[in-house]
Amino acid sequence: MAKDYYNILGVDKGASDDDIKKAYRKMAMKWHPDKNPDNPESESRFKEAAEAYDVLSSPEKKSNYDNYGSVDGNPFGGNPFGGGFGGHGFSMDDIFSQFGDIFGNRYGNQKRQKRGSDLRIKVVLTIEDILKGTVKKLKYKRNINCSSCKGKGGTDERTCLPCNGTGKRVVVQQTPFGQIRQETGCPDCQNTGKQIKNKCGSCHGEGTTVKEEIVDVDIPAGLSHGMQLSMKGYGNHIRDGVSGDLLIIIEELREMYFVREGNNIVCEKEISVIDAICGSRVSVKTPHGDLQITVDPGTTHGSVLRLSGKGIPDMNLGLGDLLVKVKVKIPKNISLDEKYILEKLKNSNNFTV
Predict the structure, then answer these.
(1) What are all long-range contacts of 157-162, with beta carbons under 8 Å and residues at least 24 apart?
(2) 310 within 8 A of 286, measured Cβ to Cβ
(3) Other C-beta atoms lying within 10 Å of the C-beta of residue 321
(4) Please, which residues have CB within 8 angstroms of residue 84's CB and are 6 or more apart in sequence?
(5) What confidence tens digit (pLDDT) does each residue in 283-312 have?
(6) Neighbour count for residue 159 (Cβ, 10 Å)
(7) Residue 115 in contact with residue 241, Cβ under 8 Å?
(8) Distance from CA of residue 169 to its chain's centroid?
(9) How many angstroms separate the Cα of 334 from the Cα of each of 232, 279, 329, 350?
(10) pLDDT tens digits, residue range 60-99?
(11) Using alpha carbons only, how large is the chain's radius of gyration in Å?
């Protein structure tokens, strides 16, 4: 069952960003392990509050959580590719950097591990894919550990002299308002604080090489256009660090016969005037295959026939429906015999207006 992040922070669903931030600060101070040395539960509560803040402070994660009950937009909850707390791989360090005044040395001053860049890839899904779920085989290129130097970049690693091993440089700019000091990454060592004297001939000191990857991605049912799945650790690798993530962007293919409205599927069916008047059983093309539906006598143009449970699954709304919009076909050219029959019907009670 998905965690109730609003309850964890003690805020309402309509709480503002400022209210969420204040509530998290209060909970973090309350459950800080240093303040609760005799309470083994405190660290768990402390991290749970950080997880809740990570979700509710991000517009994208909060929207997915509110609408689908999960951070990654998976309507069945959880991330199918694993991750950190709650399955969405948030970074405690990112949160600590915003609240350095309350965490102290135990958490606030931990050195962040370098992380490679994320990669994004688009996956196009048909409405059948979205309805039933599918497995997609994706091919892409990414940076991986160099096999020749095992990701070290070469041999004879030394402290970078320009940055004195800090991996950072301080740039001073003179402006009309005085000097501005700005800390940037050291370009000589690529922020690592180390330089390789004997660089690897395969990766030229980068520690990574490009490889084409092929992965099978399990796409759950019920996704929609613009949603994003994440495969943790499948992004670019970086020397002396960890790999980024592979972000999979969902694009919904526009269909000729079907249109999606929320978790309902809408299609059209053309019927004859005779079927509309007398009623009939007609075959309708749907994502579930051809289905027989009943057209009641007297069905008018534009009527909507509903087949319950034949739509798209949604965690909050359940199964959607299939909506069949009826289009009554009016013939443009009729024979003399057909015209004679219709003229005879003109004056009957059912055909007078």
Answers:
(1) 157/194, 157/195, 157/196, 157/197, 158/194, 158/195, 158/196, 158/197, 159/193, 159/194, 159/195, 160/186, 160/188, 160/189, 160/192, 160/193, 160/194, 160/195, 161/195, 162/186, 162/188, 162/189
(2) yes
(3) 19
(4) 90, 91, 232
(5) 998 888 899 999 999 999 999 999 998 888
(6) 12
(7) yes
(8) 36
(9) 65, 21, 13, 21
(10) 888 888 877 776 655 544 443 334 444 444 555 555 555 5
(11) 31
d(CA 229, CA 243): 16
The string over 4-32, giving b where at least 16 C-beta atoms fall within 10 Å of a residue's C-beta and e elsewhere, is ebbebbebeeebeeeebbebbbebbeebb
List residues bridging with 300 in a β-sheet: none
Residue carrying structure tokens 């048909």: 126
Task: Give the single-character DSSP code of 16.
Answer: -
pLDDT surpassing 80 at residue 209: yes
Instruction: Write down the mean pLDDT value for the chain.
Output: 82
> Measured at the alpha carbon of residue 28, what is the angle toward residues 27 and 31, in degrees to the nearest 5?
80
Query: For 252-270, how does the pLDDT look when each residue is reduced to its tens digit (9 = 90+)?
Result: 888 888 888 888 999 999 9
Structure tokens at 157: 């690693």
Averaging pLDDT over each range in 55-59, 128-132, 335-339, which range is the top one?
A: 335-339
pTM: 0.56
